Amino acid sequence: MSSQIFVDFKPAELHDTSSGTIIVFYVKDPVTGVLARQRIKLNHIHDKRERLKYGRMQVQQINKQLYEGWNPVVEKSGFSKIVSITEAVKLYKKSYAGIRPDSLRSYDSMMKSFNEFCTLYNMSDKPIYEFGRQTAQQYMLHVEDRGISAKTYNNYVRFMGQFLNFCVDKGLAKENPFQSVGRYMSGVPPVSARL
Fold it and tell me: Is 23 exposed, middle or buried (0-12, 13-18, 19+ CB in 10 A)?
């Protein structure tokens, strides 16, 4: 098999060296964005012919899984899969099908605002797990700059918190950054809105 590099992985290859037989492949680390080397040692199989036969079968199986989107680094990190912010929004929209029409209009309006923000700051294609506390606060400042009421501001915080909770529940993100975003109370803006 050639050493062709794909965006998220480099296919598995079998290497038989003087130090042993190994399968080597590379997968994209979701945190660093860099291809990380993965090795599987096969020296536990003592018969060399059997070891190579088993190794070739494993290479085929690993490559099939890689082409289907499997990533062992993602598995170890606790994410079910890596999706962009845009994909996460689409998944969330599917989850709230069947709600009342007035709630649906409100949700769609808030998602439209969020999509506009992500487009404005070139974040749409970034993984949802990268959406952190600082970006959440930046988004809420963006929302507040539109001159909305305290009640509407709080509704945005609540809605975005639900969206990020959905992402955490589905294994798309590790934490909900909107838990640390304050709400308006008695006409006083939250600390995060004054940063």
Answer: buried
DSSP state of 189: P
Tokens in use for 60?
A: 């085929």
Residues 6+ apart with CB under 8 A from 179: 161
How far apart, in Å, are the Cα atoms of 17 and each of 10, 22, 26, 42, 52?
A: 20, 8, 19, 11, 11
Q: How many CB atoms lie within 10 A of CB 113?
A: 18
Comparing C-alpha atoms, which of 45, 34, 41 is closest to residue 15? 41
Say if residues 58 and 24 touch (Cβ distance below 8 Å).
no
* Alpha helical stretches, state H, the chain: 48-67, 72-77, 85-95, 101-120, 133-144, 150-169
Cα 102 from chain centroid (whole Å): 30
> Backbone phi, then psi, for 111, in 5-degree steps?
-70, -35
- Alpha-carbon span 26 to 128, nearest angstrom: 23
Could you tell me the pTM of the whole model?
A: 0.63
> How do residues 75-114 score in pLDDT, each as one tens digit?
676 666 777 899 899 888 888 767 788 888 888 889 999 9
